[in-house]
Amino acid sequence: MKQHQLIYKIVLTAIFASLCYVLTTFVSIPIFGGSGYINFSDAFVFSLAFLINPVVGGLAGGIASMLSDLTLGYTQYAVFSLIIKFLEANVAYLICYLMSKKGGFNYVKAMISMVIAGFFMAGCYLIPDWITYASGIDTSLSALLLTNFAFNSLQGLVNSCIALVLLRAMYPLFHKDKKGKTNL
Predict the structure, then answer these.
(1) pLDDT digits (tens, 9 = 90+) for 121-133
(2) C-alpha dihedral (134, 140, 145, 148), degrees to nearest 10
């Protein structure tokens, strides 16, 4: 039985990674200066973290984002995207889990945790930005890092809202008790 569940989660991860890849690659908004792009992968990361589990959400979003970076020519971000998206899903889930210890899960707690995880993601992307652009740029590096942080934060906020809508629509499909009632 456990092997069946493992195969099921691997297949779900692959399916959602491919969906996330298509959405991320073909619906992306480049940031001026060629230093990255805004996308909707975090909506998948957050939704899957809460609907299935944070490992599936993190892997699906991370693999998709890494492949999108490679496809779109942002190779310097590829490995970082895999790691950052994986961590982002786990941070969102962990924060919500800790807040839900008293009073149980609700959408407000989920939204708060997704927003915090979105800012965490934006902060993490400062690392590859700094590594990539630190050589040769002195005073304008701060402006570039601040701009990229702002765009990544905006991406996290927008994706948190999208994920909340997806969660409200899909949570009842994934979380039912033995009598068919939603566990919320």
Answers:
(1) 999 999 998 888 7
(2) -120
Put simply, whether the predicted model's pTM sits higher than 0.90 gets the answer no
Q: What is the pLDDT, as a whole number, of residue 94?
A: 96
Find out whether 177 and 61 touch, Cβ atoms under 8 Å.
no
Helix axis angle, 78-100 relative to 54-72, nearest 10°? 160
Name 73's bridge partners. Answer: none
User: How far is 110 from 46, CA to CA, in rounded Å?
Assistant: 9
Domain at 2-29+36-174: CATH architecture:
Orthogonal Bundle (1.10)
Question: Domain segments of the chain: what residues?
Answer: 2-29+36-174
Q: What one-character DSSP code corresponds to residue 75? A: G
pLDDT band at residue 70, thresholds of 50, 70 and 90?
Answer: very high
